[in-house]
C-alpha cells in the first residue's frame, strides 16, 4: 500500500492531491467489512459496518434527484453515523492501523470507501494539530468523532454593506464553534458551514463522509484561508480572511 503523509495531503498541493486520488482504488481495496447479515440490527440499534455503508449509499444516491436537499441529507447521514457501531471490527482494525502510523510518524489519513457518490475517510490528528480553514466547494460533509477530542469552527462567506474587507481579503462569519467528543458529529453543506477549521485537543480519529466526493474539479476549486487573528472591531463573529 502506498503511504501518504496527511500533512502533505492537507496542504492541498494539487499534484499531491491528485496522486492520492490516483491511488484511491488501491486504498479502497484495503477497506475491511463486517458481516452484512450481522449488521442488520433493529431500527435505532447500533449499525455494523456493511449495514452502515449500505444505508449511506442509499442516501447518497438521492443527490442525483432534482429535489435533493443537502440539509436533510446531512441530517440523515448524521443520524446513521450516530448509530454506527464504533467497535465494529472493520472500523477498529482501520483505527488500529492508522494509530500505528501515527506512532511511526507517517500516514494518518485513510480512505475506507471511495464511491462515485461519496467518500468515507478515517483521519487521525496528533494532539494539538490544526487544520487551517478551508472550504469544500459544492460538497456536503459529515464528521463523526470516533475517538479523542477536537475543536471545530465553521464559517460562511458574507458580504456586508457596512463592513469592507481589506484588499485581497474577504469576510467570513463564524457560524458554529464547538468541541467534538466520541460519537459527536459536525456537518456542513455547500451553502452552510462549508468552511471549517479543526484543532485537536487530544489524539483524535474522525470518520468523514463527503458527498459528492472530491474530484479533480472540486480539488481545483478548493480554497484555503488565512484568518486574521482577531475579529473585525464591533463584530465578534466576523473575520477577515485571505485565500492562500
Ligand atoms: Fe474539511
Give an account of the 3D structure.
The chain is α+β, with helices and mostly antiparallel strands. It has one domain: Sandwich (Jelly Rolls). The protein is about 30% helix and about 30% strand. It has helices spanning about 5-10, 15-20, 25-30, 35-40, 50-60, 70-80, 90-105, 215-220; strands at about 110-115, 120-125, 130-135, 140-145, 150-160, 170-180, 185-190, 195-200, 205-210, 225, 240-244. The strands form two sheets. It has a six-stranded antiparallel beta sheet, with no helix packed on it. Strands 1-2-9-4-7 form a five-stranded antiparallel beta sheet. β1 and β2 form a beta hairpin. α5 packs antiparallel against α6. The radius of gyration is 18 Å and the shape is globular. The protein binds fe (ii) ion. Fe (ii) ion (FE2) binds next to loops.
Estimate the mean pLDDT confidence.
Answer: 84
Low-confidence stretches: 1-40
- Helix proportion range: 25-40%
Q: Which sequence of strands runs across the widest sheet? A: 3-8-5-6-11-10
The 3D shape can be described as globular
CATH level-two architecture: Sandwich
What fold name stands as the CATH topology? Answer: Jelly Rolls
User: In CATH, what is the class?
Assistant: Mainly Beta
- Domain module count: 1
Q: Separation of termini? A: 31 Å
**In terms of structural class, how would the helical and strand content be classed?**
alpha+beta
Helix/strand order: HHHHHHHEEEEEEEEEHEE
How many helices?
Answer: 8
Share in β-strands = 25-35%
Number of strands: 11
User: What is the rounded Rg?
Assistant: 18 Å
